[in-house]
Design goal:
- The chain is an alpha/beta fold.
- It has a single domain, classed as Rossmann fold (3-Layer(aba) Sandwich), CATH 3.40.50.1820.
- The chain contains 11 helices and 8 strands.
- The chain has an 8-stranded mixed beta sheet with strand order 1-2-4-3-5-6-7-8.
- It is globular and about 50 Å long.
Length: 258
Amino acid sequence: MPTLALDALQINYALHGTGDGTPLLCLHGGGCDGGDYAPLAARLGGARRLVCPDLRGHGASGAPEGPYDPGTLAEDVLALARHLGLGKVVLVGHSLGGAVTERLLAAGALEVAAVVSLDAPTPLAAGMKQGLGILRDAFKGPDPMATYRPFMAQVVGWADDPATVKRKVDALCAPPAHVLGPMLTAMADFDGGDTYGASRAPLLHIDAQQGVCDLARLTQLRPDAWIGQVVGTGHYPHLESPDQVVAMIDHFLTRHRL
């Protein structure tokens, strides 16, 4: 896979697809990597390119001591977009990637044609904010995984497939503590949504009914947003039921001629 060197940091990324459609810049969730978008790339790559980086501290990218807040991750992604010469893009952000997407919008340095929010905390719901605060505090103690693993097992999905749940939770626990702890701290303190309110880029939010996004506030901020819900999945609908997600994304992009 290609890489981009940013000072002492290496950013790994994958390129998928062909076609003249507006490229998708796909940002994964915390503890994941760009490979999470492979099911979407297989279904959408016939009409457009997909750029899927591993955010710093994740996958094959470098894992410096920090920082790991959404703003810093957005700076890495912006450097990658400039390196690849990307013009107008559709930002796709899952979970943490949605927070990074909002920081990219706020920076105003990318030409953003539209935004797809995949069960992202923009804005973060009160109950999930409390849960992230518990995880943040757990990473200050001697055994954070005793709290982190069962929390993630409840939200990942695949309710009838415990083996897949275990594999996914194992992967989510793979990044080192110096990545997960600061990342969770930044997300617990994240108060997103206002940038979406100020943006005129068409917005599709796909909710997985996990209590991540404050849908009422999002609707207030962006009455014009398209808000869809998947059924029968956990927090990773693009992995658990990609056909549902792709159908909504494809319709959204087609209607907006992207």
